[in-house]
């Protein structure tokens, strides 16, 4: 019903329809912050409720304005009747923000690691058992976030301190004398004679390279197709900005070093 209503517009491109993102029990509607657009959206939602009997709880819904004046926000809130939110917002377990994320936004990742560490009986494990837990549990719970965001160095350092302390002492803290091998060597491959602990800083970059690969091989990715229309893939400059985009642009030399291109018919090749 929303997509059929041309007067409910896309916030970034008014000539496009309003996008509706749904996953599990989350619904995210992106709409142009104009009174007429929001009134039309409210009408459609009310019609949906009247037709299906599924009542929308506006008290549990949140409106998050972007680049909108306080006067406009107040008028739109009176139309929808929901509470006003601000960034960062948590969506599908990740923080969304229109500015650079602060370290506090990643505190839940660190807290989750502490929760695991607090429940393990480290005194019953040998060093290799601890290494298995570090690689399979502590590292795996970071993969989802690292596939999307470049984690701040402060967050990565805090996670490394916990991993190192658990590996060598099974406790929250560890002293230098307890660390039998330098952490840089611990994170080397087993073939090099080390313990094979993952370097999460390098892993974060490798996972983000998949996004650059998706740009050059868009397939069914709506995000990749949208970006390709707005940037120069050779330099990643164009009508896309923000700290997350700058993090991807910094990885472009690394992506070039590990990939190769086949020109083919030249239809998508820029000389």
Query: How many helical stretches?
Result: 11
- Kindly state the number of beta strands: 8
Radius of gyration: 24 Å
Task: Based on Cα principal axes, name the global outline.
Answer: globular
Structural description of this entry:
The protein is mainly α and 271 residues long. The protein folds into three domains: 20-86, no CATH class; 103-198, no CATH class; 204-257, no CATH class. The chain has eleven helices and eight strands. The protein has helices spanning 35-52, 70-80, 107-119, 127-138, 143-146, 153-169, 183-186, 200-216, 222-228, 243-250, 252-257; strands at residues 20-23, 26-29, 62-63, 83-84, 89-91, 94-96, 231-232, 237-238. The strands form four sheets. It has a two-stranded antiparallel ribbon. The chain has a two-stranded parallel ribbon with strand order 3-4. Strand 3, helix 2 and strand 4 (83-84) form a beta-alpha-beta unit. Helix 1 (35-52) packs parallel to helix 2 and helix 8 (200-216) packs across helix 9 (222-228).
């Amino acid at each position: 019903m929303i997509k059929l209503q041309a007067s409910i517009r896309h916030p970034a491109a008014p000539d496009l329809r309003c996008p509706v993102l749904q996953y599990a029990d989350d619904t995210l509607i992106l709409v142009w912050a104009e009174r007429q657009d929001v009134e039309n959206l409210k009408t459609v939602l009310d019609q949906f409720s009247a037709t299906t009997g599924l009542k929308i709880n506006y008290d549990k819904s949140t409106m998050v304005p972007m680049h909108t004046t306080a006067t406009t926000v107040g008028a739109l809130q009176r139309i929808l009747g929901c509470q006003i939110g601000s960034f960062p917002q948590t969506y599908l377990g990740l923080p969304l923000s229109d500015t650079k994320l602060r370290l506090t936004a990643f505190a839940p990742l660190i807290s989750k690691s502490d929760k695991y560490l607090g429940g393990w009986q480290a005194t019953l494990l040998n060093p290799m058992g601890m290494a298995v837990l570090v690689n399979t549990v502590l590292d795996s719970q970071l993969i989802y976030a690292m596939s999307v965001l470049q984690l701040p160095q402060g967050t990565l350092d805090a996670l490394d301190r916990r991993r190192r302390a658990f590996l060598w002492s099974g406790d929250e803290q560890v002293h230098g004398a307890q660390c039998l091998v330098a952490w840089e060597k611990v994170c080397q491959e087993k073939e090099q004679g080390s313990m094979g602990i993952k370097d999460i800083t390098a892993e974060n970059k490798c996972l983000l390279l998949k996004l650059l690969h998706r740009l050059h091989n868009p397939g069914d990715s709506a995000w990749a197709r949208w970006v390709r229309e707005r940037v120069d893939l050779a330099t990643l400059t164009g009508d896309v900005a923000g700290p997350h985009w700058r993090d991807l642009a910094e990885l472009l030399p690394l992506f070039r070093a590990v990939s190769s291109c086949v020109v083919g018919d030249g239809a998508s090749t820029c000389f």
